[in-house]
Design brief:
This protein is an alpha/beta fold. Helices cover 38% and strands 14% of the residues. The protein is built from six helices and four strands; from the N terminus they run E-H-E-H-H-H-E-H-E-H. The protein has a four-stranded parallel beta sheet with strand order 1-2-3-4, with helices on both faces. Strand 3, helix 5 and strand 4 form a beta-alpha-beta unit. The longest helix has 19 residues.
Length: 158
Amino acid sequence: LKEPYVKKNGVSAVGASAGGYAVFWLEGNHNGRFSAFISHCGVFNMESMYGATEELWFPNWENGGPYWDEKNKAFYLKNSPHKFADKWDTPIMISTGENDFRVPYTQSLEAFTVAQVKRLPSKLIVLPNETHFISKPQEFILWSREFFEFLDKYTKNN
């Protein structure tokens, strides 16, 4: 924001995978800095993710192991985006592939539920034939259109 070429208002945070996790975490910790968020295939609830992923190597390595282990409890409390859902206050678009087994689509559903219950402007895109990546050209065109429409709606005139 200090750079002269960056618009000071209407700033958005966008991320996929680890970036999608960061977007969910920022939604509950940004203190009004962002006007909109977009998350693709992000981890929302590190605890439920532990029991749903096909690949335990990642949460064991990144989080130190299971959430119920006493030595990991503080880490999960500090870093799981769902622990900050009470502070969500910004429009968010969430997308996911239904065949993503690394970060199951249920993570996106959990986050979208928070946005809906809090009556935040929100959009959910579930791509039924995609995995962790959008690889089919028609699906990518659809996703891109939704992406830019969402950003235009919540950032252009701020």
